[in-house]
Design goal:
The chain has 486 residues and is α/β, with parallel strands linked by helices. It has 15 helices and eleven strands. It has an eleven-stranded mixed beta sheet, with helices on both faces. α4 links the parallel β2 and β3. α2 packs antiparallel against α3 and α9 packs across α12. The longest helix has 22 residues. The radius of gyration is 21 Å and the shape is globular. The two termini are 12 Å apart. The structure holds glutamine (GLN). Glutamine (GLN) binds next to β4.
């Protein structure tokens, strides 16, 4: 039972053939039927969502139109939606209720979108599979014995399983793109700064970005356009050029487009099935007159090390606020001293991956190691960004795999953190460079989907989506939906 794209629903709502209330009721029915298996959802407030839907219906009847008016949307549970609990996938936030709306959430609400659920995730968005959630992990709708990818696991599953046509995730090093590839949906990581981070729980602030998720580029452009725009509450926020083109995304003419293929991304380790899908996708570009040009990103081999040094350093600092004093869980087993209470709370409330990163990051930042690790990683980050800059002299966009393989079985990588980190080898470099990039469906291998990644120069987000739109007007992979039953 495919529920249709956001654009189908947009047209139905605008024509008066559909009501937002019926769409939202349908969404909750679907969650009730499927989520016992898929575990994508952590919290809902059905009465409130239905109330918002009825308000949207009144606005529609009064003739108001916005790109998202009346459309259901799912929010990753590290984004604040006031009045609902927010866990970030962690026990340490037990009992915490969001006291305000994230800027992106507020803008969606003002435009009449209907948040319907808070979605599962790896704890504090640290992970690549969804398995590091403190709760039952989300499952891949194409094969529930496999991971959906992370960290925005529940958000992507919600779109793939048709709970809602739109979702928000966050992408620090690949967390919307990797699950999108594993679950056959489309997801954008915008240029750093284009979407406000105010109200997104910080993991690694120099890397974190909110990312929209949907079946198609056209759909995610609807939510993206509503959320973009400078926010005084986020000092890194920047204006998105050509935002007005997002409400009705047109395909770019691919004729003459120079598509760069980073040689380091097509090397050993890429599963042959995934490679085959990429080759077929690239032929679609060529068929429209695009030119494939080899490019080199020579510092790629330092990207994983650089990312996991910088990310953990920022994690060590950002997560110090979860101390049992201000938010959520407070241990009472060692309440005799303040230090004892803080350390017991963190020990009880935080999971193993989060602890690993806090320890590694604290080590990197400590006296004597700071220069050797943190400062060195900052320098490597500059070189990685410079590689992309040079490549964009020869190419208009870059195309690459999203991940070396397809969705893996539960437990396959949890004993080996390094193997888990390597799932991100193609998604962290662009995050370090702050560039816009997206993952879109490229087909199936061994019964599982895999995506292709497109990467653009800074602030070329709109054109990148127009390229994706062109590809999706020529292919049907993104229309494939999983067969699901309760
Ligand atoms: N998998 C990467 C990590 O664990 C990326 C996570 C993310 O983008 N939030 O850090």
């Amino acid at each position: 039972m495919a529920l249709g794209t956001a654009m189908d629903w947009r047209e139905g709502l605008d024509a008066g053939d559909l009501s937002s209330e019926s769409l939202v009721r349908g969404a909750f029915d679907r969650i009730r039927t499927l989520d016992g298996t898929l575990h994508a959802v952590l919290a809902t407030d059905e009465a409130r969502s239905l109330d918002l839907a009825r308000k949207a219906d009144r606005r529609l009847r009064a003739g108001e139109r916005t790109p998202v008016l009346g459309l259901p949307i799912v929010l990753k549970d590290n984004l604040h939606w006031s009045g609902l609990p927010m866990t970030c996938g962690s026990r340490v936030l037990d009992g915490y209720v969001a006291p305000y709306d994230a800027t992106v959430v507020r803008r969606l609400l003002e435009a009449g979108a209907i948040p319907i659920a808070k979605a599962n995730l790896d704890e504090f968005a640290m992970g690549s599979s969804g398995e590091y959630s403190a709760f039952d992990p989300a499952r891949n709708p194409w094969d529930p014995t496999r991971v959906p990818g992370g960290s925005s696991s529940g958000s992507v599953v919600a779109v793939a399983a048709g709970y809602a046509p739109l979702a928000l995730g966050s992408d620090t090093g690949g967390s919307v793109r990797l699950p999108a590839s594993f679950c056959n949906v489309t997801a954008l990581r915008p240029t750093y700064g284009v979407l406000s981070r105010y109200g997104l729980t910080a993991m690694a602030s120099s890397l974190d970005q909110v990312g929209p998720i949907a079946a198609t580029a056209t759909d995610l452009a609807l939510a993206f356009g509503v959320m973009a725009g400078v926010d005084p509450m986020d000092s890194t926020s920047v204006e998105l050029p050509h935002r007005e083109r997002l409400a009705d995304l047109r395909p770019l003419d691919l004729n003459g487009l120079r598509v760069g293929l980073p040689e380091e991304y097509f090397a050993d380790g890429l599963e042959p099935g995934v490679r085959g899908l990429l080759d077929a996708a690239l032929r679609v570009f060529e068929g429209q007159g695009a030119r494939l040009v080899p490019v080199s990103l020579p510092h790629t081999r330092y990207a994983i090390d650089t990312y996991y040094l910088l990310c953990t350093s920022e994690v060590s600092s950002n997560l110090s606020r979860f101390d049992g004093v201000r938010y959520g869980l407070r241990s009472n087993s060692a309440a005799s001293t303040l230090a004892g209470m803080i350390s017991e709370t963190r020990d009880e409330g935080l999971g193993p991956e989060v602890k690993r990163r806090i320890l590694l990051g604290t080590f990197c930042l400590s006296r004597g190691y700071y220069d050797a690790f943190y400062l060195k990683a900052l320098k490597a980050r500059t070189l990685i960004a410079a590689d992309f800059h040079a490549a964009f002299a020869q190419a208009d966009i870059l195309a690459s795999p999203v991940s070396p393989g397809t969705a893996f079985p539960f437990g396959a990588k949890t004993d080996d953190p390094l193997a888990m980190y390597l799932a991100d080898v193609f998604t962290v470099p662009t995050a370090l460079a702050g560039l816009p990039c997206l993952s879109m469906p490229a087909g199936f291998t061994g019964g599982l989907p895999a995506g292709i990644q497109l990467i653009g120069p800074a602030l070329s987000d709109v054109r990148l989506l127009e390229v994706a739109r062109a590809f999706q007007s020529l292919t049907r992979h993104h229309l494939e939906t999983p067969t699901l039953s309760a």
